[in-house]
Predict the structure of Phage integrase central domain-containing protein.
Amino acid sequence: MPNGSKFWKLSYRIKENTFEKVAKDWWDNYESEVSENYHNKLWRALELCVFPFIGKKSMVEISRLDLIAILQDLKEKGIREMTLQVYIDLKVMIFIIIM
């Protein structure tokens, strides 16, 4: 279990913020680690494929099934590259959020 202050900070961040807000915070920090072109491409994928489904939900409202539905929708549309990229983005974001 995380130490006290880290736990409460995480708890507040997750409960009080929408997925889009947390993603934006993460993205602003991630921006310096990738090229501008790559950064813009990935953010656009989130805007088109993720935010319409879960962007306004609080972090505690998002289920694994929500994430699977997003990926399944992309897969059914035949957008393989974007499906993979959205999967990677979500995985990295979730890992960073719980760190």
